[in-house]
Amino acid sequence: MVAEKQSRARVAFILPPREIFAPDSAGAIAMVVQRLAAATPGAVVMGRIVGRNSASPSATFPNIPYYGANHAFALIRTLRALNPEFIDVHQQPRLAILLSYALPNSKIMLFLHNDPLTMRGLKTRFARRFALARLHRVVCVSDYLRARYMTGLPAWGLPPEGVAGTAPALLPNPLTLSELPPRATVRAPEILFAGRIVADKGPDVFILACAYALKKLPGWTATMMGGDRFGPRSPETPYVRNMRNAASHHGLGFTGPRPHAEILAAMAQAAIVVVPSRWPEPFGLVALEAAASGATIIASEIGGLPEAAGNGALYIAPDDAAELAAAILTVASRADRRAVLGAANLEWAQRFDTPLIAAALENLRATV
Q: Is this prediction's pTM over 0.85?
């Protein structure tokens, strides 16, 4: 076994058991972990590994298939052989607690990418307080999630930074800016929706808004890219089929699921990227990618989206197709305003560059 031949690893990144790490179909958490691992010498990424991403030459990838109820024990066996100094558990509170008992020589950090109040092991305030006291650190990807975590917990009763039991830390998701495709000098007159085609993301709102706006925007087009899941092999669900038919009926393009590289390339060309989520996004990686592409962003003002999209985005109320259409018409008719907003977005995205976020993570480890 690869792990048994290695000396002590410094950091082991643990992926959620059902998330596949693959170059062409990795989910948002897997992409975040890949970027952090690439910036962490001697890192180990553990999970369902399908192929290896060449962008992480410094990391090793022990494949831990999902074993159902026995998955945790398979992880523990491998981790005991690796004996890492830090174990970064992503999105699995109960596993993090278990590892804190099974591997007392390692420092366990829990990273949360979704609402903790909906996660098994954190739903009650007592469970959340216990996790803060038991784990070396709890880390949230947005202030929105930190506030959700602290629901029902008095901030005044928590210890200071660097002491067990302190409030969750903030570490935004990274984006490796040097790996992004070149940006178009002249943006295409296109309105783009990129992401999962599920009800939470508001694709139906996008279709209705564009159906109205395009009638008043000669020469402009609207395109939807994505599927029910991440990656180009996502199945066509009944909801995706309905959205495809609705898009076609109203004259919108619909590419279906595409590789992540193609989506980034489309963002680098399109004038406007819309993120019309009706679900409180924990962070909103698509919005950050759009900011880094230099596009004009229109996004729902909900959840952690404003933390990802920044102060250069235009914000609308969730589930309001009329307001979205008005915002599209406002920026589509003003090339000068789009240029100002795009420049602001580029500046905003700089603070999320992977080397900066990785350095912040190292500083956070130093406080453990």
A: yes
